[in-house]
Amino acid sequence: MYPQVACYNSPAKKNASDIIELNVGGTRFTTSKATLTWVAESFFTALLSGRVPATRDANGAIFVDRDPDAFRVILQFLRTKQLNPRGVDIDTLLHEAEFYGLSPLARRLRLCADVTRPSCGGLLFYGLQPAPDVLQIAETQTDTKTRRVLLLQGHYNYMAVAYPGYLCVYRIMESTGWQLVFASPPQEGRIERMALNTKVTPGSAQMAAVSTGTCVTLWTFGETEGESSKVGRFELSGRVDSLFFVGSQLVALNRTGRIGVWNSTSYRWQLQDLGATGVCSYDGAGAILLLGCTNGAINYIDMQKFPLRMKDNDLLVSELYRDPSGQPVTALSVYLTPKTTVTGNWIEVAYGTSAGTVSIIVQHPETLGQTPQLFQTFNAHTNPVTKVMLSEKYLISVCREYNHVRTWQLTRFRGMISTQPGSTPLASFKVAALTEPDLPASYSLGNQIGPAGDQHDQQVFIQKIYPDTTTIYARRASDGARIARINSVDGSSITSFVVHECEGSSRMGSRPSRKYIFTGHANGAIQVWDLSTALEGGTLVAEGCDGNPSASELIGLLEYSDLGASRCSTPCISPAPSLIATGAAGWDTPQSCNDFNDN
Fold first, then answer.
1. At 224, is the secondary structure helix, strand, or coil?
2. What is the helix (H) or strand (E) element at residue 553, kind and residue range?
3. Beta-carbon neighbour count of residue 169 at 10 Å?
4. The 3-state secondary structure of 245-311, one letter per residue
C-alpha cells in the first residue's frame, strides 16, 4: 500500500503553515498560530497579520527580544489558559503580559498582586490623614504644586506639616484622631524650615514658626482651629539655615555665625554675630545650646540667663571647648546623665570633625565652669563626620561617604560613662541614598536618616533610596539591622518622613507612649506607621546581612524611579552636594530641636 501524497492545497499543507517558530531572547519556541492569536488585539495578532514588521533569525524563526523565562510561562497560559508562574516574579510577568497586550493574563496577575499585597499597609500601618481643605482651595487658584509635603515635625501629641506655601498643625488624639488646630495664611515664598513648641508654661503659648529665605514668621495657636495670632515677622539678615525652639525661645541660625533669638518674656527679636567664626553644627540639652564652629571651638549659650541680658544686647556666647587639632566641628551630640543623690547631671558631648575623627568630652558637675575633660578620640572615618549621636548605650557616627555608619557600645557605671572596659566597636554599615544636586533646601531636613529616637532607648535609621520613591526602610541604629520595610498604601511618593513618639492616653488600661514613623506624600497626605511594633518584632533579614536593600530589591526600586529623566545625568550619593559644599552635612540634624525643652 502506497502512502498518499498531499497536494499543494491539502489540509496537511495548511496545518504546516500554522506552525510558528519563535526565537525569544535566544531561546527557540514552537507553537501554533491559533495559540498565539486567541487573545484579540495582542502583540501576536499584530505581528502575524503583518501590522508589526517581523524580524527573523538565520533559521527563519521570528525573533522577539524579550525575557525567555517569562515567555515560557506566558506561552503555557496561552496553551492551557491556566497560570503557573514557575518561580518567575509576578511583577515581571505582569510587565511582560502588558507588553504582549494579553489583557486576560494581565488581569489575573494584577489580582494576584492585589491579593498578596496588603492594601492597608499590613501590620505596621496605623492611619492616614488626607491633605487639608486649604490645599484644595489653593489648587483652584494657582497652577503650582501645593500639596507636596516638604517637612514634618512632632512635639508631644502635635504634628506640624509644611507644604510649599502653607503650615498646618494637627493635634493627635487617641480617642478622636487628627484635629487641625492651626493653618497658616499663604506664605510669600517656599517654606524651607519650621519649628514647633507645644509645651505650655505659665505666661507662654503653643507656637509654630517657618522661614522663607532670610525671614522668620512666628504664630501662637490654641487647642482648636481659629485660636491663632501672628506674633511677628523677623529678619535674620542672612539665609535661615536652621530654626528651632529652646524652651519657649525661638532660635534661628546662619552658617556664617549669625544668630537670631526671639524671647517669649520680652517679645523682642535679637541678633548677634560670632564674628568671623562660622557655625557647622549644633545641639543642646535642657537650656544649653552648643554650637560647633569652623575654628574647632564648641561654643555654648545658657538660654536661662538669656532674658537677664537682653538690654545689654549680649547672648552670653562662651567657648566651652576647642578641638586640639583645630578641625571644624561638623557634628554634635549632647547627653545628660541621670541625676544622682550625690551629684547632679554629668554633661557628655560627642563631636565629629571634618577630618573624620569622633571625640567624647565630659563635664563633671563639680567642675562646672571649667574646661571639659577629653575622654576618648576615635579615628573612625576618612571623610568628614556629618552626624554623631551619644546615647545611654551607644556612640554612633555617620560620615559623608555614602552615609557610612560606625557604632560603639558604651560601658557605664552608675549612669556615667566608664573607661573600664570602655567602648567596644559594634558595627560598620552604610545607609546610602541617591539624591540630585538641585533638590530644594527643605529636602535634606525633611528626609533626615537619623539616628532618630530617644537617647535612652533603641534608635533607628530611616533609609530612602531615591527622592521619588514609595518605599523606605527602618533599620536599628546600633547594628544596621532592618526592622521594617514601609510601602506607601496609596502608591503616592514619599516626600518626607520623621520619627516621633506620641503620648498614650491617661485612661486606666491605656497603652503607654509609642513610637511612630510619619511619612509625608506628594498628594499632601500623611501616613502613620507603628515603629514600636517593628522594634518589638526584631529583624526582618537574616543574620549576617547588613540591612541594606538586596541587589534584587535595589534593582526593583530603581526600575520605577525616573533616574533616566533626571536633570542630573549621574545621580549623586547622599548627602546632597548642596550640603557637601558647606562642609556641614549634619547641620539640620541635632538630636531633636524640641528635645531641648524636655530634658
1. coil
2. helix 551-559
3. 26
4. EECCEEEEECCCCEEEEEECCCCEEEEEECCCCCEEEEEEECCEEEEEECCCEEEEEECCCHHHHHH
Strands (E), 4-139: 19-24, 27-32, 55-56, 62-64, 125-129
Residue of 261, 205, 265, 262 lying closest to 229 (CA atoms): 205
Q: Which helix (H) or strand (E) holds 178?
A: strand 177-183
Checking DSSP bridges between strand 62-64 and strand 19-24, what pairing results, if any?
A: parallel
Place of cell 529583624: 539
HEC letters along 446-484:
HCCCCCECCCCCCCEEEECCCCCECEEEEEECCCCCEEE
> How many other CB atoms are there within 10 angstroms of residue 424's CB atom?
10
Contact 518, 159 (CB under 8 A): yes
**3-state secondary structure at position 150:** coil
Which grid coordinates belong to 577? 552636594
The strands making up 158-162's β-sheet, listed across from edge to edge, are 151-155, 158-162, 167-173, 177-183
pLDDT tens, residue by residue, 206-264: 999 999 999 999 999 988 777 889 999 999 988 999 999 988 889 999 999 899 989 87
- Cβ neighbors of 536 (< 8 A, separation 6 or more) are none
Among the listed ranges 350-354, 432-436, 459-463, 531-535, which one has the minimum average pLDDT value? 432-436
Q: How wide is the angle at C-alpha 497 spanned by C-alphas 560 and 358, nearest 5°?
A: 105
CA of residue 83 relative to chain centroid, distance: 39
CA-CA-CA-CA torsion sign (561, 562, 563, 567): negative
pLDDT at residue 372, rounded to an integer: 87
pTM: 0.78
Amino acid of residue 491? G
Rounded to whole angstroms, the Cα distance separating 96 from 109 reads 11
**Whole-angstrom distance between the N-terminal and C-terminal Cα of the chain?**
105
How open is the CA angle 591-192-498, to the nearest 5 degrees?
40
Q: In 3D, which of 311, 461, 492 has the Cα closest to residue 397?
A: 461
CA distance 213 to 438: 16
**Residue from 281, 253, 136 nearest 192 by CA:** 253
Angle between helix 90-100 and 68-80 (nearest 10):
70
Beta bridge partners of residue 235, listed in sequence order: 215
Residues 6+ apart with CB under 8 A from 56: 62, 63
Instruction: With both helix axes pointing from N to C terminus, report the angle between 103-116 and 90-100 in degrees, rounded to the nearest 10.
Output: 160
Cβ distance 475 to 483 under 8 Å? yes
**How many residues belong to the chain?**
599
**What percent of the chain is modeled with pLDDT above 90?**
43
Neighbours of 570 (CB within 10 A): 9
CA-to-CA dists, residue 116 to 5, 111, 350, 451, 489, angstroms: 56, 9, 46, 32, 14
Q: Give the residue carrying C-alpha cell 517558530.
A: 21
Local confidence band at 32 (pLDDT 50, 70, 90 cut-offs):
very high
Amino acid 10: pLDDT: 44
